[in-house]
């Protein structure tokens, strides 16, 4: 007997028929003697419908009230899923974030989980219930309803798996696993049976849409065994995300996948005096406004000044620009502050990279051969990311996928 | 400065534009220096949509899960209403039943309020907030979400007014007050400026749809000043529901109104041995199944047996019949158990009735003159109710309205 957390996304619970499918899958796991916790998202389209309703009233809705409204999406799905299980004769009980309770901070619309009280769930599991938990939502210390931000249902699933010490957290989605890259861009893309957490983390953070990055971080931190599966296929083991690279397989490919992301914009601050503390003076006000920053690059110029470049989500570029112009530019005497949202980020990811030189040069040569100019470069032990002009993104992904031989298993 | 609770029903918050209207009305009260608590229902149609979703999964949905789903209707409206107030520059904060907390028993889908914690609301009111509370819902001692049953938002409003010791509880609806009877049946029906609690109670319980009976009981019990108003008219004082009959006005009419109700069905148990405890043996199992019973009549027959008749909601007639046939008939040796859902109840109501004889005989004569047969009679100090064949209902209401001179102020 194992304890399994299964998370189903919005397309997997898009209508009553699909919810019945979810219930049948859960029933098969119950029949094998497993304990099952089900985490569900809102029915697809529902979150957007609720956000639109809020925006009909207030263009930039108050985040506390927005969370009150948006959290109802998952609340409807947990009720329906519990009913579908009961209809199959399975004992089931739904839980909102408040009822669990999934304690978060009070950063409405992008809250972070602080603690999960697993006692009620444990008791119900031991009494034979399937617990159906609303993803994406929690409650702060004052009883306010919070949401974790888009994709937060994955995080809920992994955090519950960690709190319950579950044997496996299964993320059901509309794809059947993690691919070497997006098959819509590269038809030859191949499903990976296994991937390490570090690789997955880089792939997720670099824009692979299969799993949300915070859920992968959580899984890594708490050593939760994570598996990505399709909710539309009866069979298939999906992709297992492992803690360790496979030591047995010496022929493991160097590169696991190519990730890409066109959601970011680049902000450049030029002519900044090259003094200690300058990075903080620039990024502090941006962080205070709750704007997430991804890549950060600083180059020393010849004249004792430096150029400082970073990327943010496209939606937040204008907000970041006006913060910098209003609060930072005069203060630090920067020459110019500019933004560019016609960029894309492309990354090659693989644990094999650690022990292989030449990956970077092969990547840069491949792009150069296609005449693609590189605007920014950022590297980690298992990743090389470049920022290029957005219009070259698909081309870059295709030629890199081929250059690193990813189409061959 | 007064503390006012305003309750807005589903048609008053049916869409963003109407919610903005609600906010503007609240703003006018705030501008006069009043503290305001707003109680809102789900947008009209929303509760039925959610019930349909549940029934798509399970024909007779588990009541706990149904409440989880249905309660989201009001949760969306509180968010929207709070946003609409903020958009007008008014500090506002929404509350679910759990957040208030409105403690109920655990009779899902028809829970009763046990206690209201008014501390958070009081603090926010004192801090200048308008508190927007979800009607119709509460939370049981174990943290389960409950709903109060249809029309329960009125009860929420009155219960909050009682807990907060509000100066007035205003119930906004799509009619501009309480009428002598339904104007759709009798065009000459007249709006009452005032009505006593007892009369209102009888009118509500007898089927007048303006206010839900439990809210009137609550208001009477806690001496909450209740006013029914239209949310679609800027002006008008609606109908005030008073604690005392108006002693000053000697010419007060004897009858205040005619109520009617076609939602009930009649169940008759014939040939029951006339022994002590028989009423309990019949009604006990019905009550245990949470079926509400309205009128109850017992007649002694000539042969030492008795006939026992009572009414229940039409939707519950078949359930009640099968309970009686399965669990009661053999046990008490009843000759026959039969149901009739083609009935209507018509009542004349008025505190003036106490001191006037002849109301009953006038009522019966009026119906007899139209050839309408009376199947059951039930009386209270201020009400006479009769059950007649359903098809005669409108006719009965019209002739009684005329016979008691209700068209003249």
Structure notes:
Chains A, B: InterPro entries: AceGlu_kinase-like_sf, ACT-like_dom_sf, ACT_Aspartokinase, ACT_dom, AKii-LysC-BS, Asp/Glu/Uridylate_kinase, Asp_kin_monofn, Asp_kinase. Chains A, B: Residues 267-342, 348-409 form the ACT domain. Chains A, B: One of its GO terms (cellular component) is cytosol. Chains A, B: Keywords: Amino-acid biosynthesis, ATP-binding, Kinase, Lysine biosynthesis, Nucleotide-binding, Transferase. Chains A, B: It catalyses: L-aspartate + ATP = 4-phospho-L-aspartate + ADP. The structure is a homodimer of 409-residue chains. Chain A has 409 residues and is α/β, with parallel strands linked by helices. Chain A has a domain at 3-174: Carbamate kinase, CATH 3.40.1160. Helices cover 35% and strands 27% of the residues of chain A. The first copy, chain A, contains 13 helices and 22 strands. Chain A has helices spanning 16-31, 46-57, 63-70, 72-87, 97-100, 119-126, 152-163, 197-205, 213-221, 278-288, 317-332, 359-369, 393-403; strands at residues 3-8, 35-40, 92-95, 102-104, 113-116, 130-134, 137-139, 145-147, 168-173, 178-179, 191-192, 194-196, 226-230, 239-242, 257-261, 264-273, 293-300, 305-313, 336-340, 343-349, 376-380, 383-389. In chain A, the strands form six sheets. An eight-stranded mixed β-sheet of chain A has the order 3-6-2-1-9-13-14-12, with helices on both faces. In chain A, strand 7 (137-139) and strand 8 (145-147) form a beta hairpin. In chain A, helix 8 runs antiparallel to helix 9 (213-221). The longest helix of chain A is centred in the N-terminal third of the chain and has 16 residues, at 16-31. The first copy, chain A, is globular. In chain A, 46% of the residues are buried. The model of chain A has no long low-confidence stretch (mean pLDDT 90). Chain A binds chain B through residues 16, 19-20, 50, 53-54, 56-58, 61-62, 64-66, 68-69, 71-72, 75-76, 78-80, 82-84, 86-87, 93-94, 96, 98-99, 143-145, and chain B through 16, 19-20, 50, 53-54, 56-58, 61-62, 64-66, 68-69, 71-72, 75-76, 78-80, 82-84, 86-87, 93-94, 96, 98-99, 143-145.
